[in-house]
User: What shape does this take?
Amino acid sequence: MKATAIAHSNIALVKYWGKRDEKLILPQNSSISMTLDELFTTTTAEYSEEYKRNHILINEIQATEKEAIRINSHLELIKSIKNYNGFFKISTKNNFPKKAGLASSASGSAALSLAATSALNLELSKSDLSIIARRGSGSASRSIHGGFVKWNRGEHPDGRDSLATQLGDINHWPELTMIVTVLSLKEKKVSSRAGMKQTVKTSPLYPMWLNTIEDDLKTVEQALIDKNFQKMGSTVETNALKMHSTMHTTNPPIIYWEADSLLLMKKIISLREDSNIPCYFTMDAGPQVKILTLDKYVDEILENIQKKKRLEKYYICHTGKAAHTTEKHLF
Ligand code: PMV
Assistant: This one.
């Protein structure tokens, strides 16, 4: 049986950084995200009892050993739901660069979870899918939903309540725009998985992160309901800077910023403070700067940030759809 799924990437407005259980991928804190319409992964999964092992293609190239280990273990988890003992043929494609801080692991694990469970004819609820996607990559739990999403950290030690729910659907705030810039295509040296583990262990600022997160979550959730752009943007920006402060004070230090990232962050602050253009930035485990604004300011912002240097690439994103299946298979 063959099935194909499309899942969109998501960028956190209030970040997830740090786990309380490494194996089950249980986070220290809840997080809130926006699912992005322009960035997505398409995955076709075919299950057969005839296959003797999994066959995995990523962007039409055989998966590396490291990638295969991760995908194989995710497929084992999915098969264990009903004791299946066949194998899969998987082909997965991103429409954007992977491992560059653009959340390809979020859309990738969400698309794989939906494609593989559909190929097995398991009809799962969004909550169950979110839990399965979480086991592949924490942020993937949020890519199961469209629009604005909250991943609740949950309390149960087995992770049954650590799943994402939707805060607002795709039509809730259509003017809200995220310009995702691509400043560098170098693959990052420290994965978010390794980075957050080291931060929890060594950063003296990590307690500050946990002590202030509930306030950020409340503020952003309310600002989303009220569509209060200034309140939301300023909290989103500070939240990202707090997360990066915990990274910078990790031992050894984790600095995902490039010189161009810093220049762009300063430019965004200046456009806001000196030119009154409503815009804020956020950043993840990579050098790319994501700019939060409203539709009508996009052209002005792009014109300003490209004055000195043209951006290599950028995506103008609005809220994207939930993960879904399609009949257009990749093989
Ligand atoms: O789920 P992971 O391992 O890709 O970690 C995501 C970490 C951040 O992107 C930095 C924050 C987030 O909430 O997405």
About this structure: The chain has a mean pLDDT of 96. The radius of gyration is 19 Å. The pocket of PMV is lined by residues 12, 15-17, 31, 105-106, 137-139, 192-193, 284-285 (CB under 6 Å).
